[in-house]
Amino acid sequence: MATSNNILCDLSHLGLLEMSGADAVTFLQGQVTNDVKLLTGNNAHYSAYCNPKGRMLALFLAFSHHDHLHLQFNRELLEPIMKRLKMYVMRSKVEIKDVSDSIIKFGINGPESASMLAPMFAKTPAQDYELVSLDNGEILKLPSFNGVARFEIFTDAASAPVIWNALKVNCQVVEKPHWDSLEIQSGIPDVTLKTQEQFVPQMLNLDILNGINFKKGCYTGQEIVARTHYLGSVKRRTYLASIQSASAPQAGDKVIDATQNEVGQIVRSAPNLAGGFDVLAEMRIDSQQAGNVFWNNQAIITKSLPYSLDV
């Protein structure tokens, strides 16, 4: 349902953890696929959190701010992931807390989005994943699929109404499905309760999205993730596709081929302007190349991602 108009969306559906303490960076470095030490306060990156078998428990958008780290991810996973992380803290000097409600989050997308932010913020990020921290909030430039700028704003309860009310004058206020559509069109995957422990990070294109650092130290699941990379054994990828259906595909739904064999599953889904749904679907590369793949007896029509799957 994404359009070229300027849109504004409340992102309170996203969970946000804050990690602080003298050992926070060292601790997280041993848990996730990306190099936490590369988070300088001026950038963000995606990172997978895996079980010992290299299967993803969560997908984080990670960034640092002053003396702490932030992990943004699917809010339905927040409680179990926070509990799991705390279980491994042990004697490390790390504090983990839920700041999903105290830090207000909203997104803006559209051809005039950057110019609309300019009167309220002294600087606006110009590059994807660039983070700018200012007195009244932080702005992160997110990847987009059509060259139209997309940003996420993090602010406090005092500043949020002022920023929101100023932006909505020239924006259409939309709900979560619209923002999900922009994420899908940008090729950004997700992990939900239904799809936890289903994917090695490369299956969700995390290597292409720079969500894996193959030069960093050890972390949980590293052996499997590294083996998949160095042996060239990526046999499944996530594809952008559309499905013409009145009912919504759900994350975890099966993708089958013409012989009724299961070849993948739906990663995420959102309504599109054509009356159907755009999806990210993880599936076997050979099955996608052969064509004739289906969800609920409806054809899955593959579209072009904004990035290449050739690595």
Describe this structure in words.
By secondary structure, this protein is an alpha+beta fold. It is built from 7 helices and 18 strands. The longest helix has 12 residues, at 78-89. It is globular, with a radius of gyration of 19 Å. The two termini are 30 Å apart. The mean pLDDT is 95.
Question: Which descriptors apply to this entry?
Answer:
Elongation Factor Tu (Ef-tu), domain 3; 18% helix; single chain; 6-stranded mixed sheet; 2 domains; globular; 311 residues; 7-stranded antiparallel sheet; 18 strands; Gyrase A, domain 2; alpha+beta
Short recap of the structure:
This protein is of the alpha+beta class and 311 residues long.
**CATH topology-level fold name of the largest domain:** Gyrase A, domain 2
Instruction: Give the ordered list of helices and strands.
Output: EEHEEEHEEHEEEHEHHEEEEHEEE
Q: Give the name of the CATH architecture of the largest domain.
A: 2-Layer Sandwich
Discrete helix count: 7
User: Helical residue percent?
Assistant: 10-25%
Shape: globular
Report the sheet with the most strands, covering strand number, pairing sense and barrel closure.
Answer: 7 strands, antiparallel
**Within the largest sheet, what's the order of strands?**
17-16-13-14-15-12-18
Radius of gyration: 19 Å
User: What low-confidence regions span 5 or more consecutive residues with pLDDT below 50?
Assistant: none
Structural class, judged by helices and strands?
alpha+beta
Strand percent estimate = 25-35%
Would you state the CATH class of the largest domain? Alpha Beta
Fourth-tier CATH superfamily name of the largest domain: Probable tRNA modification gtpase trme, domain 1
Number of domains: 2
Give the number of DSSP strands: 18
Distance between the termini: 30 Å
Mean pLDDT reading: 95
What's the oligomerization state? single chain
